[in-house]
Structure formats: C-alpha cells, structure tokens
UniProtKB/TrEMBL annotation:
Pfam families reported in the protein's UniProt record: Myb_DNA-binding (PF00249)
Domain Myb-like: 174-228
UniProt-recorded name of the protein: Uncharacterized protein
Gene Ontology molecular function, alphabetical: DNA binding
Disordered as annotated region, ranges: 128-150
Residue ranges annotated for the HTH myb-type domain, each copy included: 181-232
Keywords: DNA-binding
Organism per entry: Panicum miliaceum
Length: 266
DNA sequence: TTAGGGTTACGT
DNA sequence: ACGTAACCCTAA
C-alpha cells in the first residue's frame, strides 16, 4: 500500500529470503498492508509485493515477486505477531511451488517448531525464532525431494500456522490452500485490464497488469467468470466482497460488450 | 493457453 | 445446509 519502509537486519537473511523487518503499523491494523507493498532490501534492491491474504490471530501474507528473480524464490509468506501495533515481522520466503519443495518447507517448519513461535507471536521474543540457524541451511544445494503427482493439499505453512499441533490450540481454522480472497483493488485492476485487452487474453493481462502478483492467468480468468456470475444482471443472494457501484457498472458494461465465454473459433 | 466443468474452502 | 468464490483438471 503506502510504501512501507522496511529495513533488513542481516544480509544473510536476505540471501535465504528470510529476515526480520520492523514495519510501521497504522492504527487500522494489518489490513492496511493489503495490496501493493514497496520496500527496499538492505542491498538496495527495490521490491514490490502484493499482499493478498491476511488472517486473524496470526497474519499470513502471501506475496510474490521475490527478488532477485534468478534465485528461484518467487513468493513468500509473512508472519507477524498478533495485535502488535508496531509489528515486527518475519518474512519467510518460500517457493512458488512449495509442492515441489517440501523438504525445504519442512525444514524451516522444523526450525520454527524448535523455536518458540508461540512466545514470539505473543510478543515475548525480540529476535527471530530462527535466529541465524538459517545461514547453515543451503537452500540452493537442495534437490527437491518429492516427485510424482500428488493430490492437492494444504500448504505445510498453513497447516503449521493454523492447524498444526504447535499452534493449533487456539487457531480454529486452516487457511485456504492458496491465495485467498481477491481485494477490491485487485478486482479493479482486473476490470481495467479486461477493458483494455478484452476478454480472453489472460496471459497478456497477467503480463501487463499482474506481473508481480500471485494471481496466475488462470486465476484471472476464473475471477472474471466469478465476477460475471456475481454481477451480470444476475441476482446472487449475496457477495462476499462489496465493490463500488461504478466498478460494478463497468463490469456489467464489459460483460455486455465482450460475451463470455468468448466464441471459440473452429 | 483458454474455456469450461469439477472440486474444495469458507461465508451466511 | 447451502451458496459463493477460489482453485484444479484437461481437451482442444
């Protein structure tokens, strides 16, 4: 959102994609962090992320566009203590395809388990539960362990934070398997994109409007479909996200202009 | 890569 | 319970 200034504690952590960062909190709470977040790494690299998911108790932010692009890290999660007004936040980098890198994920989870995350979350600790343990861990050396198809599953991160035994005690739900709900801001962007490129050019839309977003082109397509279902003169009983009327109008106009599904030629 | 049906998580 | 929205699967 409003360019939060974030400094990193140590270069090592920056390397592994795991670090602490003091973040200025508005009184509104963590919701303010929804949307685009820009900051600068200690190295000077500018970053831009999009925060797409926040949950209560522990806040999880799934972000994208982890730089450097070559590192293979594409997204990360951010865990912050509940109810802290100047939250110290721990960014935990993770792969876009955590499914392929369970070893890594589980390794970190193990570290977190050993550290007293509960205590950290309650505000008791003032340094990373991971300490510098991470510097011993060579991420790049790891070959991903899992192969083969696998049924969908909840991210181990989610399970740990919300459903795992360590923290499960007072967390009553598990997050959605992926990115959670679209924000009004994202929807606006999508609508803007559709109005520019028309319906059906999802990968281009992704490229131009959602380059750094967690949303995939398929997500964009699905979201558009949902928007139509929700607003196309159609009476849904309710919507989970209220959009500004002008935006809804725009959606309706676009829906009329570009029939969807688009005619498949054959 | 897209369209569209199917599945799952979560809100009401 | 049931509806909505996010995600998955896959033919073409």
């Amino acid at each position: 959102m409003e360019q939060a200034e974030i400094k990193f504690c140590s270069p090592e952590m920056e390397q592994t994609g795991l670090f602490w960062a003091p973040v200025q909190q508005e009184e509104q709470g963590l919701d303010d962090l929804f949307g685009d977040l820009q900051f600068t790494l200690a190295s000077g690299t500018a970053c831009e992320l999009q925060v797409t998911r926040i949950a209560t108790a522990v806040s999880i932010f799934r972000c994208s566009a982890w730089p450097p692009a070559e590192s293979g890290w594409k997204s990360f999660q951010l865990v912050s203590p509940a109810n802290s007004s100047t939250a110290e936040m721990c960014f935990i980098a993770m792969m876009e395809n955590y499914r392929e890198r369970d070893d890594d994920a589980l390794f970190v989870l193990q570290l977190l388990e050993e550290a007293d995350l509960d205590e950290w979350l309650s505000g008791g600790l003032h340094q990373s539960p991971l300490g510098d343990t991470m510097s011993n861990h060579k991420m790049e050396g790891k070959k991903s362990g899992r192969r083969g198809t696998r049924k969908r599953r909840i991210s181990p991160w989610d399970t740990f934070v919300f459903g795992g035994t360590t923290l499960g005690r007072n967390r009553e739900y598990i997050t959605r398997k992926n990115n959670s709900r679209w924000t009004a801001k994202e929807v606006k962007l999508l609508v803007q994109g559709v109005s520019k490129f028309g319906v059906g050019r999802w990968s281009m839309l992704k490229e131009k409007y959602f380059k750094t977003s967690v949303r995939t082109s398929v997500n964009l397509k699905d979201k558009w479909r949902n928007l139509l279902r929700a607003y196309k003169e159609n009476v849904q009983k309710y919507t989970l996200l209220d959009l500004e009327p002008p935006l809804v109008e725009q959606i309706r106009r676009l829906a009329a202009k570009h029939p969807y599904p688009k005619q498949r030629h054959s």
